[in-house]
Amino acid sequence: MTVHMSDEADLVAAGLAQAATRYFAAPAKIEDLRRESGGASRQTWSFDALAAGQRHELILRRDPPITGTPINRERGDRERSAALDRATEFAVLRAAFRAGARAPEVLFELAPADALGEAFVMRRVGGTAIARKLLRDPPYAEARQKIAGQLGEIIARIHGVDVATLPRLDRREAADHIASLRGLLDTLNYAAPVFELALTWLDRRKPPPIARPTLVHGDYRTGNYLADESGVTAILDWEGAHLGDPVEDLGWVCVKSWRFGSIDKPAGGFGSREALWAAYERAGGAKVDPARAHWWEVFGTVRWGIICHSQAWKHLSGSLKSMEMASIGRRAVETEVDLLQLLKEAR
Amino acid sequence: MAQDRPTASELFNAIADFLREEATPALDKADPRLGFQMRVAVNSLAILEREGRLGPEADAREHVRLKHLLGRDGTLAELNSELARQLRAGERDETDGELMAHLEATTADKIAIANPKWR
Fold it and tell me: Helix, strand, coil proportions of chain B in percent (round to 5)?
């Protein structure tokens, strides 16, 4: 069933007006509604709500109700499987915001009667997520000096969130991650010697399960936060949040693919690993073991490489027709180059 | 039978220049999302051009190395599956010099096609 964009916008505006009227306890008017991004099954909309003489700049996160044929339903489910549902994401964001972790401030969830599917509303935050701009454009020159330190500080706050304030989350140790990537390669039926070499290398050296797992963001990297001239304004993309080893996030943010060409600055393209770790420790993070961080950086590199193949598979399997997704398959080899280099340095 | 000029590479370059210099700026004005998609498409076309030029010999080299490394015959796909199996089982690892030389060479050939600027 195809829904026309304008019809869909009308539907979203109506649901939002109803929910915002409830939340603000005053008749709410919805203005400047526009679709920001996202696939068919996960949407982000930007809008303003006018209520009681005040303008609120807001964002809607939404999974539309799954409609159509059983096969489409199954595809939608598969795309959503490993990621948090909206209600859990709402609860994680609320806990992180209250802990001062620079998450966007979530305001309210939508009700089934609003007819928008699983959805919630949060405050809009200024800034851009576009790495190329942050890394090269003149307005961000000052921010570039600060971002590595800010990334260390913010991730320490995220790891400091009291797990008792969180909803139920998967616990994922190093061994679980390795098994899941091998499973993904099997599902894709893809013979990948360099990834298999790296996964065996990782398996033989994996850190032991940690006594006290913390909140792990799961996709903490350049491209997944907003920043303005003053630096980082909000951390986005929390669907991969889980409980586990905090060093996982510190390794992922240093993966070479997230430096977007600024390869001599491992911390997201903005600074050294040491600057990241120092800021992390100053902000209350546990002392970083460089060998453990290296392990997670190698892991993150394999992870991104295999994700490239799974993105391409969305197109190749026919579940999502996308030239862009198909093209990502040819980016996997970038991580193979990086992995061979990382393993050589480790020897 | 030889094709007429332009050669495949010449024709590719003519198309890519048109898409980059004329089509992409027009798309950027109409819809930046489409402009971005066009950049991705032009980049992927360049991969195909390099693959047409460099791919067959790279595949042949990989095949020869794999047969020697594994000491058996088979298609490229079969041999890569067997190598992947051995690596997952830990029957070979990064201490194997011939293995590492093979992986380095294969990866170098692949990146020269997929993204020669990657470093």
Answer: 80, 0, 20
DSSP state of A216: E
**Spatial distance between the Cα atoms of B51 and B65, rounded to a whole number of angstroms:** 19
Dihedral in degrees, nearest 10, Cα atoms A85, A90, A94, A95: -20
Q: Kindly state whether B78 is in contact with chain A, defined as any CB-CB distance less than 8 angstroms.
A: no
Mutate which: A336, A338, A342, A344, vs B, most B CBs within 10 A: A336
First to last CA, chain B: 39
Q: For chain A, give the longest Cα–Cα distance.
A: 66
Strands A171-172 and A242-244: parallel
From chain B, pick out residues whose CB is under 8 angstroms from the CB of A199. 88
Domain ranges of chain B: 8-114
Q: How far apart are CA B40 and CA B20, in angstroms?
A: 11
Q: Do A334 and B115 touch (CB under 8 A)?
A: yes
Residue A346 confidence class, pLDDT cut points 50, 70, 90: confident
Smallest Cβ distance to B88: which of A200, A326, A330? A200
Query: In this predicted model, what pLDDT tens digit does every residue of A236-251 receive, in sequence order?
Result: 999 999 999 999 999 9
Residue A80 has what pLDDT?
43
Q: What is the pLDDT, as a whole number, of residue A340?
A: 97
Instruction: Report yes or no: A56 and A79 within 8 Å, Cβ to Cβ.
Output: no
Query: Which ipTM value was assigned to this complex?
Result: 0.95
Tell which of A130, A333, A335, A338 to mutate to test the B interface (max B CBs under 10 Å).
A333
The answer to whether the beta carbons of residues A44 and A37 sit under 8 Å apart is yes
Chain A residue with minimal CA distance to B76?
A: A191
In sequence order, which residues have a C-beta less than 8 Å from that of residue A342 and are 6 or more positions away?
A294, A297, A298, A301
At a CB cut-off of 8 Å and minimum separation 6, what does A66 contact?
Answer: A41, A72, A73, A76, A77
Domain A5-123, what fold?
Answer: Phosphorylase Kinase; domain 1 (3.30.200)
**A131-346: which CATH topology?**
Aminoglycoside 3'-phosphotransferase; Chain: A, domain 2 (3.90.1200)
Work out the angle between the directed axes of helices B97-114 and B32-70 (0-180°, nearest 10).
150
Domain boundaries, chain A: 5-123, 131-346
Q: What pLDDT is attached to residue B56? A: 97
Taking residues A253-275, report their average pLDDT.
Answer: 97
Residue ranges in chain B whose pLDDT is less than 50: none
